[in-house]
Every structure is written in C-alpha cells, then in structure tokens.
Design goal:
The complex is a heterodimer of chains A (190) and B (470).
Chain A lengths: L5 E9 L6 H4 L19 H5 L6 H6 L7 E4 L11 H8 L4 E4 L4 H9 L3 E4 L2 H9 L4 E5 L4 E4 L3 E4 L4 H9 L3 H6 L2 H12 L1
Parallel strand pairs in A: 1-2, 2-3, 3-4
Antiparallel strand pairs in A: 1-5, 5-6, 6-7
Chain B lengths: L4 H9 E3 L7 E4 L2 E4 L5 H9 L10 E4 L20 H17 L2 E3 L9 H8 L7 E4 L13 E4 L2 H10 L1 E4 L3 E8 L8 H12 L7 E6 L1 H4 L3 H9 L8 E3 L4 H7 L8 H11 L12 E6 L6 E3 L7 E3 L12 H9 L14 E4 L7 H11 L9 E4 L4 H9 L2 H7 L3 E2 L20 E4 L14 E4 L2 H10 L5 H7 L3
Helix pairs in contact in B: 2-5, 6-8, 12-15
The chains are: A alpha/beta (190), B alpha/beta (470).
C-alpha cells in the first residue's frame, strides 16, 4: 500500500442515501479472482444505463480532477465484498465523504488506502449543493478543508491513520503479534 | 457491573487488548470460506510466502458461483462462465495446498456456508466465527460472535487466525408476546429492520432476547440473526439454551461424551447478566407483527402485505426506489403480478422453510404466469426434503427443484430474472439489480412467497389460505 498524506481534489456528488456495495460493484462481476483492474465495474449499472438518474453525472465525471466521492448517509452498506473498495480505487476515487459508512465497507476501504471522511449533515448538504468543489483532506491531522466553508476534523482511528501515513499493511502488524498469538493458543488448549 | 453475552465472548478471545494506538487482536475460532471472497486472500498469502496458520480451524464450501442445475450426462456443469468455474477450481486448489477441509461437489454436506456450519455442528456457542460474507451473522443464533469480513481480513485470519477489531457497541432487541399463526422469524426481522432502519444498528452487535425469541426453534433464530447486517449491525446473537443444545447434540463436529457435558456446562454461562448494560435497547411487541413484504430497494422499505406503501415526494430516496420498482406511492401491492418466486438463500432454505412452502403448495398449482424456483440450502436439506416427498409436491405444483447453492439470492451464477420482472424472494436483499439487471425484488417469508406463487400476484397469505382451503 502506498503512503497517503494529503488528498487535494474536486468532489463528485452522488446525492442518494444507503448506497449498497451491490451498486458499487454488481454481483455478476464477482467471479473475478483479481484485486486490480476492477475500476471498469465501479457503479457499472448506474454508469452504463442511460435511464439511470446518475447516468449523466457519470458521463461528466473527470476521474483525474474529481477523486473525492460525496454521497448520502450509510454509504457502502450491504455485502462485505471488498471489490467495492477495490473498484472505487480502480475508478480513480481516493476518498469518500458521507455522514455514515457501512461497517464492513469502512474496514475494507481503510485497509486499501481509500480514505473515508465522515462529516456532519450540514457539511454534507453544503457539498451536495456545490458540485466539483475543492476539498483538501489531510490524513496527518485528520482534517478536511472545504473551500468556502471551513476546516473540520473527521474520525480516523490512530492505527488506520498510522497505516495510511506510512503505507503499512495491517497484515504485517498482525504477523508481528505471532508470539502473543502462540501464547494465547497454548493457554486455550491448556 | 454485569457483562453482556457479547462481552463475555469478546473478553475470552482478546489476544492483545485495544489501546488508543491500536485495535484489539481478537482470536477467531472458526473461519468459513467460499469461492468468491477468498482467492485474493490466498494470493496475498502466496505473495508473502505465508502458510495458513490453523488449517483445522477453517472450513470451506462452494456455494455462490456454482450452478444449481444438475450436471449434464457428460458430467459437465453449466457454469455461468469459464471464470466462475475457475473460481471454484481455485478454491479447491487452495484448500488442497493448505490442508483445509472443503465440502466440494462430492460431499454429502456441501451447501450454503451459513447452512452447513450449523448442520455440521461446526458452529458452537461461545465461538468467534468469521467468513468473507456479511450474512455470517447467521451463526450468532447459537450464541456465537459471528460476523462478515472483507477479503483482506480473510487473509489476516488465514495467516494469523486473528483479526484487528475495535470493540463494537451493543444493542438489545427484546421481542415479547406471541406471534400470530403464520407469522415467522422472517416477518419479525423485516419488521425490526423497518422499525429501526437500514442503519439503525450501525456499529452494534445486536442481542435478540425476550420470550418470543426463546420460543423460536433454531432455524427461526438463524433467519433472525441472518439479516442483522441489513440494519447495519456487525453481528446478531441469541443466548444459547436447551433448544440450542438439543439442536447441536450428536452433530458431526459437536463435542462428544464427557466433552459434550463439559461444553454444555460452559455454554450455560453464555447469557447477558441481569445488570449488564447495553448501549441501546429496543422493544418489539410480537403480536403487532403481520406478514411483511418489502416494496423498495433496501430491506428497511417494508410494509405489512395488506398495507398501502408510503407516499413519496419527488426527489426523495423512497421516490427513487419506487421509480425503480415501478410502484406509485400510497398504493397497495395486493394484486400486483409476480413473474418469479424464489425460495432459497441462507435466510430461508432450511428444512422447516421448505416444509412451510410444501404445506402451502400441496395439491395446488402455481399460477401459469409465475415461475417458481426452489433451491435447498444444502445437500442435507435436499436429502431430508426428498425423503419427506417435498420435492414431489414442488414438482407436481409446477415449481423447479434445484441443487443447493446461493442461486438467485446473489444472482452471480446465472440464476437471475429478466429486466423489469417482479420476484418475490425469501432471500435477504432487494437492492437494485441484485437478482439481475433491472429486476425488482420483493422480500417476504417462505409462506407469503408460496402464496404469491399460487396467486401469481401479491396476495394476503391469511386471506388467500382461508379462501382456498382444502
């Protein structure tokens, strides 16, 4: 995982609540055994169906300039598929802003370096009213600076922050606990 | 201060406690695996040249990507794609390489991962159980702490048998009163999700308590815990009791002899102390619950079958859902034509579910316009159903009787409906496109789904069965 300190980008708005991971990564693509190259499946049905209410938005999305996705309450609910986080990253998103995230998605996203920024309702409302809005996300201070609104701290646990800033794979941290795990296992059987 | 059931199990599994700098290291007793969310985790192990730390704590099966139609005379299976077939091969190879037990095609115990864990007695009270699947909460019905994880975490558990976890909050959902005849655990959980919302239990482990839960059999409790994730919960659990012990006794992986007695003794201590504190509490009156059906695109959008759906305002999330579903705010669903009925999934594909469906369908014909697919949860469920002649009832009334698998619940094996079609489904998710692009899913109990199959439309099960008795 690459280390991440700052994300300076414009936003891309998806003004809807409860975006489930089936929308982010439709089930029929789950037969893949890869993590890479899944960006093309990201929001596949919303992006490719001209009848969909977000079709036009996706047509106008510039992944280079708009790497921060803004969406409504409970983003990433539903299935545990990590493909949702992989495909968002593959499609160029580096952070998601919402008022709340699905638990499993939250855990998956941070482990892959997709930054999740939880904001208050008024802040989300402001962002929803301002398309392609400049935001600066600073991982080292866990702050988001929203142009024309102000700077806000967002919840980021110290461990995830440390992993993001230093590009650390949490598996390596766990492997470092091998002795404690062995002791625990011995006590269990004893 | 007393401890909750969750806290008792959590405490027993902490390898390293949580600090401000790092989450707790939590030991995992049982790791369930299937073909879809594991290949990238095994690749990660390979990259790091790591072995599986405790292969005997892993149990694998194939369920998501596999066809539910029988193999052809040449033995060829009708996989939806070469990639799906390769995904199954990959799991087989990974299990072989790492010495992990897999219930493959030739196993009489193959089936949906959340059906076979309990059937085999692998799922036991007091355990920590994980799987790369959000419906792992099912196993909480046994008083286990069971939750879904992502693929990176599947890798963590393979390599270390541990997970990094922040301690979740707790919620007590107490259900009291008698359920009306014909109202099942599926109606109860849909009612609860409708009441607290799809994010109502975010960040929480739910404990279901109260006399209504005590009076439920194990399969009903599994249905209830299964859908905990649909209100955002990390897990759902029920304190084990005689019903639990009776279910587990004599199962293939259950403790035997003196071990059994000792285990039951330990399991009896697994309950929330009277003075234990929950972060949140919810009360539900079971007698208020009627047959429930979903009308929208998440499992919180539910009504009583006989009730009108809510009205919507242009631009709000209900209106977007109703547009997708082709419904108008304020109308009744009764009489809406149904194209497909799906009986199956880790929510409702166990033997008691199939018996309920067979009771409704027996000596009747399903509506000409409606296709009915019945997919048992496991080979064992299939065998029992066939020994009771349920397969004959299903086939005689015009339904398809398939081989076990996840099938139309996730629709990734090719078992899907056509765009625009309406499916009444006993599964757990009515998300857009879940059962095929443009397909409209209505979640219901097995009994309600069976009645809709006969009527060819959404019908009030109580009224329909009264009018069409005999």
């Amino acid at each position: 995982m690459d280390n991440i300190r700052l994300i300076r980008s414009k936003t891309f708005n998806l003004p809807v609540e409860n975006v489930d991971t089936d929308q982010i990564f439709p089930g029929r693509f789950l037969t893949t055994s890869q993590r890479q190259g899944l960006g093309k499946y990201c929001f596949y049905d919303w992006r490719n169906d001209p009848q969909n209410s977000f079709y036009q938005s996706f047509q106008e999305h510039d992944p280079e300039a708009q790497a921060v996705l803004v969406s409504g309450l409970n983003f990433g609910c539903g299935s545990s598929r990590e493909h949702a986080a992989w495909s968002l990253l593959g499609a160029g998103f580096r952070a998601v802003i919402s008022t709340r995230f699905g638990d499993i998605f939250h855990s998956n996203a941070l482990k892959n370096g997709l930054v999740l920024v939880q904001v208050s309702e008024p802040t989300l409302e402001f962002l929803m009213q301002n398309h392609r809005h400049q935001v600066n996300i600073d991982i080292s201070t866990a702050q988001i600076e929203i142009s024309g609104l102000g700077s806000y701290e967002f919840p980021l646990d110290e461990f995830s922050q440390y992993c993001l800033l230093n590009g650390i794979d949490s598996m390596d941290y766990l492997l470092g606990k091998a002795d404690q795990v062995r002791d625990f296992e011995q006590n269990m059987s004893g | 201060m007393g401890l909750t059931l969750f806290e008792k199990i959590w405490k027993k599994h902490v390898v390293c406690p949580e600090t401000t700098q790092a989450p707790a290291v939590l030991y995992i007793d049982l790791h369930l695996l299937h073909e879809v969310t594991s290949p990238q985790a095994f690749s990660q192990l390979k990259q790091k040249a790591l072995p599986v730390h405790q292969p005997n704590r892993c149990l694998a099966t194939i369920d998501h990507a596999i066809p539910t139609l029988p193999a052809g005379p040449d033995g060829k299976r009708s996989f939806v794609s070469a990639q799906a077939s390769e995904q199954v091969d990959t799991l087989e190879q990974n299990c072989k390489e790492h010495g992990i037990q897999i219930h493959d095609w030739d196993s009489p115990n193959r089936g949906i991962v959340h059906v076979i864990g309990p059937e085999l007695g692998a799922t036991q009270p007091g355990m920590t159980i994980v799987c790369g699947d959000s419906h792992t909460s099912t196993h909480g019905a046994f008083g286990a702490l069971a939750f879904g994880i992502g693929t990176t975490e599947v890798g963590h558990v393979l390599a270390t048998q541990c997970l990094l976890q922040q301690k979740p909050k707790t919620m007590n959902i107490e259900v009291c009163g008698d359920l009306r005849p014909g109202v099942s655990a599926k109606d109860v959980i849909l009612h609860i999700i409708g009441q607290i919302g799809v994010d109502g239990a975010s960040g929480c482990v739910i404990e279901y308590s109260g006399e209504t839960i005590r009076n439920m059999d194990m399969e009903s409790r599994m249905t209830l815990c299964n859908m905990s994730i649909e209100c955002g919960a990390r897990a759902g659990m029920i304190a084990p009791d005689e019903v639990t012990f009776h279910y587990l006794e004599g199962r293939a992986m259950s403790p035997e002899g003196n071990n059994w007695k000792r285990s039951v003794g330990v399991w009896r201590e697994l309950y929330s102390d009277e003075n234990a504190d929950f972060d949140q509490s919810v009360s539900v009156d079971a007698s208020d619950i009627r047959p429930i059906i979903s009308f929208g695109t998440n499992p919180g959008m539910v009504v009583k079958v006989i009730q009108a759906i809510p009205s919507a305002e242009a631009g709000d999330s209900i209106s977007k859902s109703l547009d997708y579903m082709g419904f108008k705010g304020g109308e009744t669903l009764l009489g809406k034509q149904i194209d497909v009925v799906f009986i199956g999934s880790c929510t409702n594909a166990r033997i008691t579910d199939l018996r309920i469906v067979a009771d409704v369908l027996k000596n009747r014909k399903i509506a000409a316009r409606t296709k009915v697919i019945i997919v048992p949860g496991s080979e064992s469920v299939k065998k029992v159903a066939e020994s009771e002649g349920l397969d004959k009832i299903f086939i005689d009334c015009g339904a398809e009787w398939r081989n076990p698998g996840c099938s139309m619940c996730i629709g990734m094996n090719g078992d899907i409906a056509k765009p625009g079609e309406y499916v009444v489904s006993t599964s757990n998710r009515n998300f857009e496109g879940r059962q095929g692009t443009g397909v409209r899913t209505l979640l219901a109990s097995p009994r309600t789904a069976a009645v809709c199959a006969l009527a060819g439309m959404i019908a009030d099960p109580d009224n329909f069965l009264e009018q069409n008795h005999g």
